[in-house]
Amino acid sequence: MSTENTTYRPESLTANRPLLWIAAFLSILMMAPVAWIVGLSIKSNQDLMLGTETVFQLPYTIANYINILHSSQAFGWFFNSLVVACGQTLGVLVLSSLAGYAFARLEFPWRRTLFVIVLFGLAVPEQAVIIARHQMFNWFGLHNSYIGLILPNLSSAFGVFLMTQFFRAIPKEIDEAALLDNASQFRIFWKIMLPLTLPAQATLGIFTFLYAWNDYWWPLISATRKEMFTLTIGIASSQTNFAQSEGLGFLSAQAVFASLPVLIVYLIFQRHIVTAVSGGAVK
């Protein structure tokens, strides 16, 4: 009785090796600006005044990060960004979940028409309504406040669409069984349906937090007092006169400091982000 040679030969890996090299090269290329900023942040401002090519030379220092702790408004801006990002994330999750459940599971007049109008929001750029929004918030005196920074982005057309599609994918037999047990609509939503949508909520929450944290356009218009700046606006305002004001190394350290929460969120929830990008959030 003869036996066949079952030795595994990674022919597919060999065939895809050029693609792997290309992907590795592009990854290094995209990481180069990050490495450059980190390198600038650990160089003294005096050395960088002589030329940025000194980033490849010793010595290195953490003095710029120490200066953030002692002489910078970055912590105040950090707190503002944290309040705005968390407030927007919580608000979008609540409103999108309620609206998505209503569009997917309830019957009410003009439901389809209203859903189409919500989807139109995906096609309207923020810049198209920025003047009217600015005037409206100015009339109500909401500029330079947390409410003014959080409120405009609570209406998420993408969030409503995502949650609607996810609720529609849940079998209706679950609702019917709960109704037979005399459960109210709110109890069905809160106790049964909402826990089943945790993957979609995680996806929506991650993207909302990242968008709110990196948002520059609306905080630039609404926050005119320095104490209400978010990190994106505060760091941009510190770059006046380039490195002559506070030092290029110090500004780079602020940029690294501002990016840490985004990096932490990505490392913790990267599985949900990959699922969302691959289209696995809505089944």
Automatic annotation (TrEMBL):
Top-level lineage group: Bacteria
Gene3D superfamilies linked: MetI-like (1.10.3720.10)
GO aspect biological process, one term: transmembrane transport
Keyword Zinc-finger assigned: no
Purpose: Part of the ABC transporter complex UgpBAEC involved in sn-glycerol-3-phosphate (G3P) import. Probably responsible for the translocation of the substrate across the membrane.
Signal peptide: none
GO cellular component terms listed in the entry, alphabetical order: plasma membrane
Membrane topology: Multi-pass membrane protein
The species this protein was found in: Pararhizobium antarcticum
Keyword Cell membrane set for record: yes
Protein name stated in the entry: sn-glycerol-3-phosphate transport system permease protein UgpE
Family: Belongs to the binding-protein-dependent transport system permease family.
Keywords assigned: Cell inner membrane, Cell membrane, Membrane, Transmembrane, Transmembrane helix, Transport
Transmembrane segments annotated in the record for this chain: 20-42, 77-102, 114-134, 146-167, 188-213, 248-269
Domain ABC transmembrane type-1: 78-269
One Pfam entry name: BPD_transp_1
Cell location: Cell inner membrane; Cell membrane
Subunit structure comment from the entry: The complex is composed of two ATP-binding proteins (UgpC), two transmembrane proteins (UgpA and UgpE) and a solute-binding protein (UgpB).
